[in-house]
Design brief:
By secondary structure, the protein is of the alpha+beta class. It contains 4 helices and 3 strands. The longest helix is centred in the first third of the chain and has 37 residues, at about 1-40.
């Protein structure tokens, strides 16, 4: 019974957890890149109005960022996470953030 459980964990559970964690890391990296490109730190609605005036209505629909979660990350600074209207600052000195950044730095796409 013990051998079957260990084999099940190694064949089914571990690969599933590894796959889900890779997907989660990828989604977070994509969110950081999109937030940096589409809505730099500041007022998103002002940026949207400026782009729609400059490039027209067709392009303004492309640039509009309605995401609920926004992650702002700058090198050697704190991380700002916006969930809706709430803002959370995560210190760059946190040991958890340093470990996560170390792991993300080793992943190449």
């Amino acid at each position: 019974m013990k051998v079957n459980f260990k084999g099940y964990v190694l064949k089914k559970v571990l690969p599933t957890l590894l796959l889900l964690s890779c997907i989660l890391v990828g989604v977070i990296k994509i969110d950081i890149i999109n937030t940096k490109a589409l809505s730099p730190l500041g007022n998103t609605s002002e940026n949207y109005k400026l782009v729609s005036e400059e490039f027209g209505e067709d392009f303004s629909n492309f640039i509009k960022d309605n995401s609920f979660l926004k992650i702002y990350k700058e090198p050697d600074k704190d991380i700002l996470v916006r969930l809706g209207n709430e803002e959370f600052k995560i210190s760059g000195e946190s040991i958890y953030i340093k470990k996560i950044q170390e792991v993300l730095g080793n992943i190449k796409f």
